[in-house]
Write a structure and sequence with these properties.
It is a single chain. This protein is of the alpha/beta class. The chain has one domain: NADP-dependent oxidoreductase domain (TIM Barrel, Alpha-Beta Barrel), CATH 3.20.20. The protein has twelve helices and ten strands. The strands form two sheets. An eight-stranded parallel barrel has the order 3-4-5-6-7-8-9-10, surrounded by six helices. A two-stranded antiparallel ribbon has the order 1-2. It binds NADP nicotinamide-adenine-dinucleotide phosphate (NAP). NADP nicotinamide-adenine-dinucleotide phosphate (NAP) binds next to strand 10 and helix 10. The site of NADP nicotinamide-adenine-dinucleotide phosphate has 31 residues, from strand 10 and helix 10.
Length: about 350
């Protein structure tokens, strides 16, 4: 069935400047890490993306390795771009990344110029686009000079493959260095993509969040729902088909009794605010303007609608924040800690 986006799509979403750049991003962005591989029907992927755009979600986040198999999420999104979003390319912000293992041999991962530029070309081909809006170094590589990795990002922009560049899961110190190198090269670092949610607050402890504000770099928080833990879905056991049943990135032991107790307490606060827990978790990530956008995933269109509704209440009282702080303490769920711990 042919698709026309909702005519009121820009009325409810909130758009914020990404750091000090001119780029505005929706407060809620959609990522295609899970649920966009060959293991899911194309119609479902299509309806998730359509629903997002209908709700003003203009930013779609991808990476070379999203699937399974790796690359298939970019292929699926390329198809959706052709069938559904043709004619809307200038209303979309599409990102991709390279850093994790993508092909065999010494040139298929990490931060070399060889890998980043080749991977970017592959991503453009899979999606059938001439350029991406944002291209990221997906993780810090301790064995490649940062000048080389940032030089590759600069080249990717200068050669027309991307409009903006960013980094993901770099800690505060490495971020300062990367931002300074990119500034010297004349290609600003516009965005940082760290993990961040009520059960994973490393960006506060590390100082990254304050550093980004100080440097005027925008940020997009991934796994803002802790892969679904910060919803009500696990409060009465593990539902069939949920991410925790898939043996992938959401480990069963993340759902400890202690974590579930915290989530139950957080849900009570969300209810008192008249929000779903997912909506409160997203509003909390966005609470003080330090984070530009919350990057969700979704296995169903209804989840996108629920999450987009977070923007209806982004304000917290001091008492609410203090109560949340008593429950929002770190669980051992940060799968990306290694990249930010590299010196
Ligand atoms: N830079 C990096 O290294 C990196 C790493 C990881 C992720 N990311 C990016 O971040 C994006 C988001 O990651 P994520 O998918 O883990 O984010 P998330 O938003 O924390 O979790 C998404 C999952 O939460 C559940 N969910 C979402 N909305 C819901 C709702 N309203 N009610 C109930 N359940 C809901 C769904 O789980 P079910 O599937 O169980 O329904 C969904 O698959 C990725 O797609 C990717 O773009 C980047």
């Amino acid at each position: 069935m042919s698709y026309s986006p909702a005519s009121d799509r820009y009325e409810k979403m909130v758009y914020r400047h990404c750091g000090k750049s001119g780029l505005k991003l929706p407060a809620i962005s959609l990522g295609l890490w899970h649920n966009f591989g060959h293991d899911r029907p194309h119609e479902l992927k299509q309806s998730i993306c359509r629903t997002a755009f209908d709700h003003g979600i203009t930013h779609f986040d991808l990476a070379n390795n999203y699937g399974p198999p790796a690359g298939s999420a970019e292929e699926a999104f390329g198809e959706i771009l052709k069938t559904d979003f043709a004619g809307y390319r200038d209303e979309l912000i599409i990102s991709s990344k390279a850093g994790y293992r993508m092909w065999p041999g010494p040139y298929g991962e990490m931060g070399s110029r060889k890998y980043l530029i080749a991977s970017c070309d592959q991503s453009l081909k899979r999606m059938g686009v001439d350029y991406v809006d944002i291209f990221y170094s997906h993780r810090f590589d301790p064995n490649t000079p940062l000048e080389e990795t940032m030089g590759a990002l600069d080249h990717i922009v200068r050669s027309g493959r991307a409009l903006y560049v960013g980094i993901s899961s770099y800690n505060s110190d490495r971020t300062r260095e990367a931002v300074a190198i990119l500034k010297d090269l004349g290609t600003p670092c516009v965005i940082h993509q760290p993990s961040y949610n009520m059960l994973n607050r490393w960006v506060e402890r590390d100082g990254l969040k304050d550093t980004l504000t100080e440097l005027g770099v925008g940020s997009i928080a991934f796994t803002p729902l802790a892969q679904g833990m910060l919803t009500t879905k696990y409060l009465k056991g593990v539902p069939e088909g949920s991410r925790a049943t898939q043996g992938k990135s959401l480990k069963r032991d993340f759902l400890s009794d202690a974590a579930i107790d915290k989530i139950r307490g957080l849900n009570a606060i969300a209810e008192s605010r008249g929000q779903t827990l997912a909506q409160m978790a997203l509003a909390w990530v966005l609470r003080d303007g330090g984070i530009t956008t919350a990057l969700i995933g979704a296995s169903k269109p209804e989840q996108v609608v629920d999450c987009a509704g977070a923007v209806e209440n982004l304000e917290f009282t001091a008492a609410e924040l203090a109560e949340i702080d008593t429950l929002a303490t770190d669980e051992e769920i940060n799968l990306w800690a290694k990249s930010s711990e590299e010196a």
